[in-house]
C-alpha cells in the first residue's frame, strides 16, 4: 500500500482509496491492537480531513494589528512587511560595524555574536520599523549603548536587550514627529535607577524645556500648544525590575491613562487647552543634544510611539507585547 498516494494495489490493478480513509483505518487498527476502540470511523475521517492541511499561521506583527505608529524600535520584528534590519552594531575589537537583522522574527543573535567575537558590541543605529524612517543613531563610540558583553548577547527574560549606562549613552535625532490628537507610547525596560531626570525617550526642541519629556519617574511633561509645560502625574516605575510601561494621552480634553504591567490608572489633566505643541526631534535615552546629565539609566527592549491616543487599543497592544516578553 502506498500511503502517500492513497492507493492500494489489488489483483485487478490500482484501486483508489481516499487518503483520509487509509489514515483512519490504520489509526483504528493501531487503537484496537492496543485494546481500545474507535466509536465512529466516519467522524474520525472527517477530523483527519480538517487536521491534515493545517499549516502554521502566517506571522503578523504588532504593527500589522495596530498600525499607524510614528516610530517603532524593537529587537523583534514588528511588521511582516518590514524588510530592514533591527540594529547596526560596532564591535570593540576593531570598531568595524555591521547591520544585524532578524531570524524567525527575532534579533539574529547568532550573527551578532559571531560578529562580536569574544569582545563587546555597541549599538550605533536602532532602526525604525514604522516605515517613517525615524532611525536613532549614535556616532560617538563612548556614547553608544551596549548589546554584547564579552561575546554574549545581553539579555533580560531570555530576550536581547540594549543597555544604556546612565552616564552618557543615548541615541539621537529620529526626526520630527507630527502629532494628531494626542500621543501614546509603549516601552519594555529594566531600569537601573528611576529619576525625574532619567529619560526613556523625549521629543524636544533644543534650547527649550521640551515637549514630551518621558521620565522614568513621575511626572511626564507635555507642551500645551506652546503656552506652557504641563505635568502629568503617575505611579513611578520600579528599578531593577523589567516592566511594560504605557502612556496614552488625548489632547482634545487632557484625558490620559498610564499603565505599568497592565495595571491602568486614568485621569484628566486639569486646565489642559491643547492641542499638543510643535515637536522637535525624538531621542532615546536623553532629553536632547547638549543637555548632559539627563540620560536613560537601564536596559530597553522595545519602544513604540504613536502620534495619537491609543487608549482603545491599549489592552490589545499590551497583550501582544506581554505575550512575546512574558513580563507579568
What's a concise summary of this model?
This protein has 328 residues and is an alpha+beta fold. It has helices at residues 19-33, 41-51, 62-65, 109-116, 314-325, and strands spanning 7-10, 13-16, 71-74, 87-91, 97-100, 102-103, 106-107, 121-126, 136-137, 146-149, 152-153, 155-156, 159-160, 162-165, 182-191, 199-204, 212-215, 220-223, 229-232, 242-250, 255-260, 263-268, 281-284, 297-306.
Helicity range: 10-25%
Write the H/E string, N to C.
EEHHHEEEEEHEEEEEEEEEEEEEEEEEH
Mean model confidence by pLDDT: 84
The end-to-end span amounts to 52 Å
How many DSSP H or I helices? 5
Q: Characterize the quaternary organization of these chains.
A: single chain
Biggest beta sheet summary: 7 strands, antiparallel
The dominant shape is globular
Low-confidence region ranges:
1-17, 205-211
Q: Tell me the Rg in angstroms.
A: 26 Å
The number of E-state strands comes to 24
Proportion of residues in β-strands: 25-35%
Secondary-structure class: alpha+beta
Amino acid at each position: 500500500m502506498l500511503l502517500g498516494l492513497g492507493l492500494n494495489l489489488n489483483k485487478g490493478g490500482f484501486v483508489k482509496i481516499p487518503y483520509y480513509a487509509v489514515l483512519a483505518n490504520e489509526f483504528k487498527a493501531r487503537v484496537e491492537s492496543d485494546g481500545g476502540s474507535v466509536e465512529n470511523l466516519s467522524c474520525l475521517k472527517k477530523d483527519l480531513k480538517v487536521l491534515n492541511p493545517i499549516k502554521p499561521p502566517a506571522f503578523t506583527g504588532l504593527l500589522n494589528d495596530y498600525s499607524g505608529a510614528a516610530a517603532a524600535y524593537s529587537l523583534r520584528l514588528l511588521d511582516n512587511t518590514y524588510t530592514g534590519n533591527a540594529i547596526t552594531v560596532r564591535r570593540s575589537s576593531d570598531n568595524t560595524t555591521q547591520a544585524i537583522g532578524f531570524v524567525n522574527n527575532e534579533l539574529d543573535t547568532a550573527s551578532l555574536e559571531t560578529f562580536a567575537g569574544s569582545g563587546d558590541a555597541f549599538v550605533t543605529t536602532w532602526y525604525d520599523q514604522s516605515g517613517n524612517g525615524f532611525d536613532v543613531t549614535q556616532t560617538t563610540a563612548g556614547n553608544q549603548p551596549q548589546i554584547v558583553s564579552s561575546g554574549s548577547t545581553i539579555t533580560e527574560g531570555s530576550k536581547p536587550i540594549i543597555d544604556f549606562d546612565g552616564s552618557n549613552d543615548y541615541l539621537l535625532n529620529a526626526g520630527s514627529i507630527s502629532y494628531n490628537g494626542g500621543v501614546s507610547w509603549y516601552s519594555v525596560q529594566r531600569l537601573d535607577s528611576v529619576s525625574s531626570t532619567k529619560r526613556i525617550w523625549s521629543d524636544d526642541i533644543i534650547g527649550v524645556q521640551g515637549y514630551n519629556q518621558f521620565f522614568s519617574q513621575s511626572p511626564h511633561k507635555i507642551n500645551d500648544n506652546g503656552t506652557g509645560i504641563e505635568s502629568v502625574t503617575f505611579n513611578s516605575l520600579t528599578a531593577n525590575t523589567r516592566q511594560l510601561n504605557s502612556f496614552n494621552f488625548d489632547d482634545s480634553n487632557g484625558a490620559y491613562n498610564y499603565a505599568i504591567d497592565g495595571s491602568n490608572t486614568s485621569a484628566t489633566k486639569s486646565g489642559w487647552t491643547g492641542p499638543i505643541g510643535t515637536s522637535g526631534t525624538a531621542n532615546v535615552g536623553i532629553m536632547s543634544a547638549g543637555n548632559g546629565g539627563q540620560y536613560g539609566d537601564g536596559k530597553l527592549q522595545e519602544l513604540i510611539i504613536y502620534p495619537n491616543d491609543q487608549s482603545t487599543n491599549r489592552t490589545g497592544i499590551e497583550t501582544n507585547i506581554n505575550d512575546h516578553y512574558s513580563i507579568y
